[in-house]
Amino acid sequence: KFRLSLITNVSSFLCRFLLQLGGDERRVDSRTIYVGHRSCPANEAFIPPKFCDNRIVSSKYTVWNFLPKNLFEQFRRIANFYFLIIFLVQVIVDTPTSPVTSGLPLFFVITVTAIKQGYEDWLRHKADNEVNKCPVTVLEDGRRMQKESEKIKVGDVLEVEEDETFPCDLILLQSSRDDDTCFVTTASLDGESNHKTHYTVPDTEKDLESLNATIECEQPQPDLYKFVGRMHIYKSNQEPAVRSLGPENLLLKGATLKNTQKICGVAVYTGMETKMALNYQGKSQKRSAVEKSINAFLLVYLCILVSKALVCTVLKYVWQSKPGQDEPWYNEKTQREKDTNMYLKMFTDFLSFMVLFNFIIPVSMYVTVEMQKFLGSFFITWDKDFYDPEIEEGALVNTSDLNEELGQVEYVFTDKTGTLTQNNMEFIECCIDGFQYKYRDASSELDGFCATDGPVSKLQQKAGREREELFLRALCLCHTVQVKESTEQDASHRPQEQRGFIASSPDEVALVKGAMRYGFTFLGLESKTMKILNRSNDVEIYELLHVLNFDPVRRRMSITGADSSIFPRVRQEEVERIRLHVERNATEGYRTLCVAYKHLSAEEYAQADEGLKEARLALQDREEKLMAVYNQVETGMSLIGATAVEDRLQEEAAETMEALQGAGINVWVLTGDKMETAKSTCYACRLFQRNTELLELTVRTLEDGGRRREERLHELLLEYHKKAVQDAPPAKGGVTRSWSVANQDYGFIIDGATLSMVLNSSTESNSSRYKNLFLQICQNCTAVLCCRMAPLQKAQIVKMVKNSKGSPITLSIGDGANDVSMILEAHVGIGIKGKEGRQAVRNSDYAIPKLKHLKKLLLAHGHLYYVRIAHLVQYFFYKNLCFILPQFLYQFFCGYSQQPLYDAAYLTMYNICFTSMPILAYSLLEQHICMEVLLDNATLYREIAKNAMLRWGPFLYWTLLGVFHGLLFFFGVRFLFSNSALQDNGQVFGNWSYGTIVFTVLVFTVTLKLALDTRHWTWINHFVIWGSLAFYVFFSFFWGGIIWPFLRQQRLYFVFANMLSSVTAWLVIILLIVLSLLPEILLVVFRKPRGPHARQVGPSPPPFPPSFLSNVFLEPLLNIFQCRLKDLDGDEVENKKF
């Protein structure tokens, strides 16, 4: 019986499959799910399909692959790989230095990085386990069983209670609500914090134990808003019932159940196949421009290293070619050395010199940079100015690798709604048949409830009562708003009109509340019936037949929608009565919505109903089929009126935009709103001034000329290019607002349709030319407004600017799911913790509560981060050049014998212990200008723009400074050793004493150089700077004062103590340190300050940072001559320094 059933099942499946191949639907890309793992029909054999489990894996490593995988990733970095090669050369070839000298620093760098990455991955494992081990309720054979989330299988029926998160993607089968709906919030997925309504599958059994059904649906894909499937419900002695499944039936993993006691659903996608998991895979790794500079500088120093090794190798054989030099009487060659191939010996000598000079490459710089970025990011998180008491949260850092990019931003792309504005909608007024209706008094709104202070007033005349009621009924019925359930205590104390509402869009709630104030109250939706309370306090009941959902393509929901979507579908004589009010409201900055109606005959409804049912059952091309039916229904309508809803500006939005423009940053507004509304917001934010000439490139301007659109587009681009680019004076330091009368400010406006023509012209040559003209025009405008933008177009705009000439640093900021694409595309992505949820925050590099915090994030934190890390990079190359140059010069005096100048302990500890902590503390705590000054003077941001401190000019200055110090260290000590009998007893100093003196001068000089550069002194700076010098002295005494049994030869035994017993050595050490730092001290003393706040690092080479000396000596002297002028009240009005 089983075999026969199996054959029947397989043959029926093959027949269905072959039949489908001939039709328009193919099931190759679909899956079949058995609800409750029961075969359907019951007499067929059940072969359970194989799907992935419900485990979520966001970690990179496991216990078994951590070591090999992490080492592989670390040695892909060129510096680490280089030092690995050097270490292997030291092990294999007889080199002058021990393998420990390069092996220990490499081991330190690899270990610290591995610990950091291992810790971060452990946190990911911990987060995964919290999700995977979370208990869930599964219904099996009529029993409720507790399971771990990771053990859920596709086909399991789950029970989820209120405020719980869905553990996988579910099809809703049953709800505790009477109307078979449930409410969810998807803030963690799509960024929308409003409640969404989902519906159960019709005709499912109340007793799920007796439900026999299969689900056919598409394979997993990441689009959160798309789902296509159908459910076959099998009942005894009846034909299977087929029900369509769409996004309204799908409950996504990560969403939370709200306002519903419990639901039951069947798992369709689990684990890494859920839409949430698919959306968080493949996020690209962003790299900062500083890393590119480091790699370029590294290449230069690598060339210097190879050049030094080549020079020494050549000179060695030139010197040995002289008679008696190759094999002196005191150092005869062994037979093995005589038999060695000449070229092999030259190659090994070259490698030996490479090993000897390899410390010029600062491998420890990478780990210091990593630690600086990681620890420095906490200062953003800890900043109390970023704390918002409304949401009780502060700033968030998701990516610490981009801290310095915050100080290099050239373009800011910002969303409008929720970013520049508050996304707090309030109904302002409406227009019915051309008559304006407005309130006498503003209404108060608290916690989603509405109270009216006064009656509605009519301006001039008003429409007829029948038209008014038709308009208000449309507002009460055409939406997806639900009435929030309240407790009995709340219901007894709260009036009917003060109920709370739940909706997926704040606009819908504002419209329903507006209708309430005019006398029409929406009472709620119960079992497909909508109830409203009219002006006469009579309850009207309507049956909900279908919902023609709003989407950004149609921009309408049946009879309500944007003016650009509704006007073409109504009679033009009706449009003229409403257009004036819509344009006026948009100019005032309000969000407008048009309202229409249409009478459907029984035949028309039957045809639409059939079309909708057929389209919703389709597995392939369902959206296109639904769109065709929607367009058929939404034509031939009659226009009633329009509404105006206000979305107020964010706190300090105008001041923030003005500060960004003052800093030389170009601001572009990318929004999906209509042009008039967005333009009004730009004026309110001071992006556009009253004297700004607006260059408009929209569909309206393209149709004005009466010619083909593409011809008109080309003509306008050339006209605007001549006006804004060719005839404009050259801009210096970025496009900023012009305060003089002679120079004209330009603002540019473009809409989505015209942008598509610019980016996707009919010919490739035209498209490239249009892009160039468009970019040049925009780059010469003080602000750019892109309206009617789709999310993909926002990302295209950012990508186009990012890849333009000069590769400017871009920043995108937004608060909603529609901003994620441009946030991911920009160099730096900022998420606003607003009312649109956390999708933008989760995909951003940094998150801030309000737009106003962007000012401090860029102008203060970004400025300081860049200066700190730029100084760190230049200082590392400088101190390593000082370190190795004397070693190179020493070869000219030791017969190119590869004799090391420094002891192996000094070679190993120089970058790890003696000089690492002071620069790390500097790069974390330095404030060359206090934050208040940086915020008050936005122009200071321009001085470090375009990577000013990591250009070739400053790099050459630091390199020459390193060469100067290296020469002074070596030849200064050599001058001392012209008479090497430096001790009182006439004992002669040896070569290790020579190297130790050079190394002592080196350590003290590079550390005190950093002290001179430090402007902001804390106890930590004092501790690490003076502590590092004290540790060097202590280590030298300790290392040379004990006989270490594990050392075959102890070169520094009592060398340091003997060196310090010589007064001459003391004098030379102090003198050389002073001579090394004297030029900079003199420059600081005699350099003319640039204004009262002249503390910043200049971008032009050489960038001499203000010194510690000026802090100690100069400022007290200046303060003596400081004069403050005060007004009669004693208030300080001016502060001048003579």
Number of strands: 38
Radius of gyration: 37 Å
Strand content: 15-25%
Enumerate the spans where pLDDT stays under 50 for 5 or more consecutive residues: 1-28, 441-460, 487-497, 732-736, 738-742, 1091-1138
Distance between the termini: 107 Å
- The number of helices is 36
Strand order of the largest sheet: 14-36-35-34-15-30-33-32-31
Biggest sheet overview: 9 strands, mixed
What is the share of helical residues?
40-55%
How would you state the average pLDDT, rounded? 78
From the spread of the alpha carbons, the general shape counts as: elongated
Notes on the structure:
The chain is of the alpha+beta class and 1138 residues long. Among the domains are: 363-375 and 860-1085, no CATH class; 396-419 and 650-725 and 744-848, Rossmann fold (3-Layer(aba) Sandwich); 426-440 and 465-484 and 498-598 and 636-647, Calcium-transporting ATPase, cytoplasmic domain N (3-Layer(aba) Sandwich); 602-632. 45% of the residues lie in helices and 17% in strands. It has 36 helices and 38 strands. The strands form nine sheets. The protein has a nine-stranded mixed sheet with strand order 14-36-35-34-15-30-33-32-31, sandwiched between helices. A hairpin with a 2-residue loop joins strand 23 and strand 24 (529-533). Helix 2 (66-74) packs across helix 4. The model is unreliable at 1-28, 441-460, 487-497, 732-736, 738-742 and 1091-1138 (pLDDT under 50).
